[in-house]
Structures are given as C-alpha cells and as structure tokens.
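User:
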Amino acid sequence: MDGNQWGAIAMGRTNPTYRDALRAIEERWAAFRRALRRRDQPRFDRLFEYAREHADASGLLNHQNPLLPALFSIDLEQEARLDDHEERLSELEQRLSETGGEQQQSSAEGTTGGVE
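Assistant: Predicted structure:
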C-alpha cells in the first residue's frame, strides 16, 4: 500500500482547467491574429468569445484535444446567430408582405374610385 490508509489521492500538481487550455490556444494563434487584416481581427476575437461562452460545458467534456470543443462551441454560437437572422428575416418579410398588400389594396381602390 502507498501508506495512505484512507485511499485519498495525494495533493499536489493539478490539471489545467479548460479555460487555461483555451487561453493557451489563443496565445498560440496570436501570430495568426496579428497577420490578419484589421477588419478580421475583431471577428477572430469573437470566435474565442464564443468558445469561452461554452467553457463550462467544454470543461466537463474533458476532451484530449481542447480545440475540438472550442470549434463545436463556435459552431453553436454561429448557429444561434443564423437562427436570429432567419427569424428577423421572416419578420421583415411578413411586414413587407403586409405593407405590400395594403399598398396594392389602396392602389386598387384608387383606380376603381375614378371609374365610378
């Protein structure tokens, strides 16, 4: 036996958290970010913001490669943005069709009004 009669794990070095791993990934990609055009740098930063938004779930996964949960988190956030845009587009199309219907009705009334 290892001298520990209670079966407790010896204290000491701990594993890095997922947030630590994500920070390290971001640091490794820093040169890539600097090489991007200025207009793309905020987009690059936003991708890591998306990954940080799901860091708790990614940490629970405890995947061997922390980049994979980060990429999946980015996909989730982009899917949410697409859903928002599709909803806004549907609302705008609905309003446009309602407005277009009212305009067609009023122009039709205007032409029949002059016939009488």
